[in-house]
Design goal:
Blueprint (H helix, E strand, L loop, with lengths): L3 E13 L12 E12 L5 E3 L15 E3 L6 H6 L10 E3 L19 E5 H9 L9 H11 L5 E4 L7 E4 L2 E5 L8 E7 L2 E5 L7 H6 L20 H12 L4 E3 L6 E4 L2 E5 L18 E2 L5 H7 L1
Parallel strand pairs: 3-5, 5-6, 6-7, 11-12
Antiparallel strand pairs: 1-2, 1-4, 2-3, 8-9, 9-10, 10-11, 12-13, 13-14, 14-15
């Protein structure tokens, strides 16, 4: 059975637009989904990220968080015939508030996975309590001191670590020093679940709002790395990738290091196949047909 990736929405966040894409519409509120990803078709199902603990955590930072009953982990798993006990491994792209907040719902017998550098960075306090909350960081430390409850990757850009056959992780950086990409081998090429290396594909990669050079992405408004490091992380995520999944936008089809298609209907749709190129709506571009053919 081929490996498949299912984007699932854990909740919507409303925040200032410039906090997502640098200098974009400051003072204008925008609403984004917070996505996790269920990987099926392998020797076991894998869950990437767990969303936010609750909506109250966001109020102190002037953000609005919404989660309906259809946005719970239990509901999403049920749509695929699974329950919480079927998830033996949870993988984190990184552990910001909106990515690791529901780890506590899983028993210590479920192994949570992340990069060692990310845990170090979370505990350092450098990004403050808005990104790495005390309650989530303490939970991860409890897992660290419980046998088998936490797995730490030491990927440094020179090698990858395998989780199950066809699924591996590599260091991506860019957003945080310990951010990782989850690489999934599909029938039509490599899929990259890249976390928050970008927030909005249209304004950052397809038609960058700040940059004029060809293939030059606009960076986010929320990152712990330098501008150059974030740009390199975005470009690396596009390199050798056929399908790109980020945590706050719909999946993208990639060819020649560029976004050439989108699949807006993939989120929260158990029947959608986001690892089949034919399901993507192609962008209107010159020579696009040649690019697709060449890929």
């Amino acid at each position: 059975m081929p490996l498949k990736i299912h984007p699932i929405n854990y909740g919507n966040i409303t925040m200032d637009s410039s906090g997502l894409v640098l200098f974009r519409n400051p003072g204008v509120l925008t609403t984004i989904p917070t996505l996790g990803f269920l990987i099926t078709g392998g020797e076991e199902p894998l869950l990437v990220d767990t969303g936010s603990r609750n909506s109250e955590q966001y109020a102190a930072f002037g953000m609005i968080h919404e989660r309906t009953k259809q946005m719970t982990i239990e509901h999403h798993l049920a749509q695929h015939g699974l329950n919480m006990k079927d998830i033996r491994h949870v993988i984190h792209t990184h552990v910001h508030i909106d990515h690791s907040g529901q780890d506590y719902l899983f028993p210590m017998s479920t192994t949570v996975m992340m990069s060692r550098r990310e845990l170090e960075f979370a505990a350092s306090g450098l990004m403050g309590p808005g990104m790495y909350t005390a309650i989530e960081t303490k939970h991860l430390i409890d897992r660290l001191h419980t046998r088998g409850a936490l797995r730490l990757f030491d990927v440094d850009g020179t090698f990858e670590e395998e989780i199950i056959p066809g699924v591996a992780v590599r260091l991506s950086g860019g957003h945080t020093p310990g951010s990782i990409s989850i690489l999934v081998e599909t029938d039509e090429g490599l899929a990259n679940i890249a976390g928050d290396i970008a927030y909005h594909l249209g304004d950052q990669l397809i038609t960058p709002i700040l940059d004029q050079a060809a293939h030059e992405p606009t960076i986010t408004g929320n990152h712990a790395m330098s501008t150059l490091q974030e740009k390199k992380a975005i470009k690396r995520a596009l390199s050798g990738t056929r399908f790109l999944f980020i945590s706050h936008d719909s999946p993208a089809l990639i060819s020649g290091g560029k976004v050439v298609g989108r699949f807006d209907g993939a989120i929260d749709n158990p029947k959608a196949d986001a690892t089949t190129a034919a399901n993507y709506d192609l962008l209107a571009r010159p020579q696009l047909a040649d690019e697709i053919e060449a890929a």
